[in-house]
Every structure is written in structure tokens, then in C-alpha cells.
Amino acid sequence: MNVLILGSGGREHAFAWKIKQSNLLNKLYVAPGNAGTAQIATNLNLNLTNFSDVKQVVINNNIQMLIVGSEQPLVDGIHDFFLNDLDLKHVSVIGPQKLAAQLEGSKEFSKKFMMRHNIPTAAYQSFTKATLEQGQRFLETLKPPFVLKADGLAAGKGVLILPTLEEAKKELTEMLSNNKFGAASTKVVIEEFLDGIEMSCFVLTDGNNYVTLPNAKDYKRIGEGDTGLNTGGMGAISPVPFASDGFLEKIQQQIIKPTIDGLKKDNIPYQGFIFFGIIKVGNNPMVIEYNCRMGDPETEVVIPRLQTDLLQLFKDVADQNLKNKVLQIDKRSATTVMLVSGGYPESYKKGMPISGIEKVTNSLVFHAGTKLDNKEVKTNGGRVIAVTSFGIDFKQALQKSYESIHHINFEAMCYRTDIGFDL
Ligand code: AMP
Ligand code: GLY
């Protein structure tokens, strides 16, 4: 099979690394890819918002499967574009169609879905510019802190948690009247604050059946002790130590099964990953959010633990053949630590030469924001490299990642030294 992966991050490098090991693979392409994917696949320079360009590349390279890494092309309807094009209909697409991608693309859509199917989540109401006044009154009925969510995609920045009523009212006005997040905040969901510890669960579904992948926990804040600005993710651990069998069973029964059944009841086709952002409140799981793709950097710990052939699983998704599939999972823990450019998640420099990657022998190195420049690997993003290691527990795995990191260097390299500090 000829396969094209869309994306350029650590998630896509991890997918490429895994798929490269499959006997089903003929040729592997990644668009646009990075310096890491260039070593194991053919990178294609593509603008992912232009589906006609994607079509040309798919036809020119006789691609049989398209794997969509990130949410934007899915929310923009790339799967629908393929289904509706006579030349592309035969191509298997991993990633949901536009309607189902609304589980991530619209907070209101996902809240309504959860309410309809009795899936535990925070109580909420949504407001527009026309109902701003009612929104302000609703805030007055809630206890602090206040949770405001832009309805649409806002590059992970659309959720605000505000300590005072005054700030919450001001931000609600900014979002609805002054387009703080552009079109994404035309509508705003205000929801009850949930207090608990977060983790993520992942399934791969063909729309009827599903397999559950290893769970993970990521660390989003830039600073030690979960302080400072939100990032795409500074590290991750799999499995999550506090997720007991009993708790995972509750997630299956109360969240995952009702979600898959709900999609079927609502006639919403789904072929791809569902990412469940879970919060443990007391001893019960609740959904913070859905994503219509794998997480990054969670993929860099989840996929290395998967021993089953990932390309075979994707083929099973496309063939509606996931029933009775059992995954083989590495029992060891995996951790990843993200090396980022100084200044990230605010402004940072690009194009810094990276040295020492080849000296790492005890860990997997997944490139996140890198590029090849005259055969030299240089930084090309805020999150630059994810260093993944295995261990009998996450502490041992982490120690290996931190040892491997000492080999790698680029100007103003930063990373968190406290991944897992709260476990
Ligand atoms: P989301 O984009 O919906 O995942 O929200 C981003 C982050 O905001 C989550 O990972 C949580 O840490 C936090 N968050 C979102 N909703 C709530 C809530 N209802 N209560 C507490 N924290 C929340
Ligand atoms: N690491 C969180 C995400 O991928 O959304």
C-alpha cells in the first residue's frame, strides 16, 4: 500500500516510524513532514488547506491511504472532499468526515452530543453577541473560577479559566463583541468548573466497533509545576498510574461506549481516532473535551507501546473490520519529554542547528519542529524534538529520556525537568 500522512509534527513522525515497520507498506509519504520523517519517508511540500493540491499528490503517487494527523483539514472536510471526488473515492481516509469532526470543531456541538447521550460532562450554556447580556447574568449564577470556551477551533488557546466574575464578564465581552478569537468565538460556551486530575483516552473506530489504545497524560503548561502559559504539550506519560482498572472500566461504560453508540444513533459516520480528554472528579470520569485525532505529544508515548501493526489496523478501519480485534500492548511505561525553542509558546527563533541526535541510543527521537537545510537538521518550530523512552515504570523511563537529552543541543533549548511531578 502507498500511504500519505498529512502533518509535520512529532505525532506524524511517530505514525511514520510505526507504519514503516508494516509489511503492508509499499511507499510512505509525509506532507509536509520534517527532518525526522525525511529519514524514513518521502516528504512532499504541500499546503494542507488546498485540497486540490492534495488530490494531485495522491493521484501522482498512486496513494491508497490518507492519514490525517491534525484537526484542521478534518474540520475543513478533507474526508468529504475525497468521498465526493470520483478520482479519490477509492482512497481510504483515516480521520472523520466534517460532521463528526465537529466533536472537536464546535464545543457546542460536542456539549449537545454529550447531553443527548448522557455522557458525563460539565453543565453549560452557550451564548452569542445577541445574548451577551444573558451570558453576563449566567456568569453571576456560577461560582468561581469561570470557564469560557470559544466554540470553534482556536489553536488550543480558546479556553479561558478566570478567577473573578469581573474578569469573566470582561473576557466574555472580548470574545463575543470584539472577536477575541475571530470567527471561533462567534459563540461561547460557559461551563461549570470541574476540579480534578486530567488524563486522555484514545480509541480507533470504524464507526461500528472500536479498539482502545493505551491511555496517557500530557503536560500542557510551559513552566515547572504546571505554571505559565499553555503549550501544545511539553511531555507525556503512558500508562497513567492513577487510572486503576475500575476507573478505566467506568470510562469504558460511561463515556467510550455511549460515545460510539451515540454516533451510530445519530447516524454520524466515523472512521478514525477519538481522543477523550477526561477529568477525574472524586472517583468518577467526566469529559472535558473530544478531539477528532490523536494527541501530540501523547502519540509519541501511545504508538511506541502499540505492538500491533498500525497499518493493518488502519486497513481494518477502512474495511469496517475492527470487530473482535485485540491489540498487543507493551506492558512497560513510556514517557516523552519535549525540547522546545527558548521563548515558546510566545515568539522564538527558527533555523538553529541541532546537534547530537545521532548520539542518542537509549531513546526514540521524534522530530516535531525541524527541517533539513543543506543536509543539516535545524529547528523549525516551537516544539522541536520529543525524546521517548521505555522503563518498568514512568520514573525509570523518564530518567532515560533525561539522560538522552544531554546529548542533544540547539541554541536556547528548553524543556521541563518535572514531567510526572504530580503522580
Ligand atoms: P479544552 O480545550 O476543552 O481541552 O480545555 C483546555 C483545558 O482547560 C483542559 O485541558 C482543562 O485543563 C481546562 N478545562 C476545560 N474545561 C474545564 C472545566 N469545565 N473545568 C476545569 N478545567 C477545564
Ligand atoms: N496534547 C493535547 C492535544 O493534542 O490536543
Structure explained in plain terms:
The protein is an alpha+beta fold. Among the domains are: 3-96, Rossmann fold (3-Layer(aba) Sandwich), CATH 3.40.50; 123-191, Dna Ligase, domain 1 (2-Layer Sandwich). The chain is built from 13 helices and 23 strands. It has helices at residues 10-19, 35-38, 51-60, 71-75, 78-83, 98-105, 107-116, 132-141, 165-176, 245-265, 299-305, 310-318, 394-405; strands at 3-7, 28-32, 42-43, 65-68, 92-94, 124-128, 146-150, 159-162, 187-191, 197-205, 210-212, 217-218, 221-223, 227-230, 235-238, 272-281, 284-291, 333-341, 364-367, 370-373, 376-379, 383-391, 413-414. Strands 12, 15, 18, 19, 22 and 23 form a 6-stranded antiparallel sheet that branches. A 5-stranded parallel sheet has the order 3-2-1-4-5. The protein has a 4-stranded antiparallel sheet with strand order 6-9-7-8, with helices on both faces. A hairpin with a 3-residue loop joins strand 13 and strand 14 (227-230). Helix 1 (10-19) runs parallel beside helix 11 and helix 6 (98-105) packs across helix 7 (107-116). The mean pLDDT is 96. Adenosine monophosphate binds next to strand 7, strand 8 and strand 17.
Layout of SSEs?
Elements lengths: L2 E5 L2 H10 L8 E5 L2 H4 L3 E2 L7 H10 L4 E4 L2 H5 L2 H6 L8 E3 L3 H8 L1 H10 L7 E5 L3 H10 L4 E5 L8 E4 L2 H12 L10 E5 L5 E9 L4 E3 L4 E2 L2 E3 L3 E4 L4 E4 L6 H21 L6 E10 L2 E8 L7 H7 L4 H9 L14 E9 L22 E4 L2 E4 L2 E4 L3 E9 L2 H12 L7 E2 L9
Parallel strand pairs: 1-2, 1-4, 2-3, 4-5
Antiparallel strand pairs: 6-9, 7-8, 7-9, 10-11, 10-16, 12-15, 13-14, 15-18, 16-17, 18-22, 18-23, 19-22, 20-21
The protein binds adenosine monophosphate and glycine.
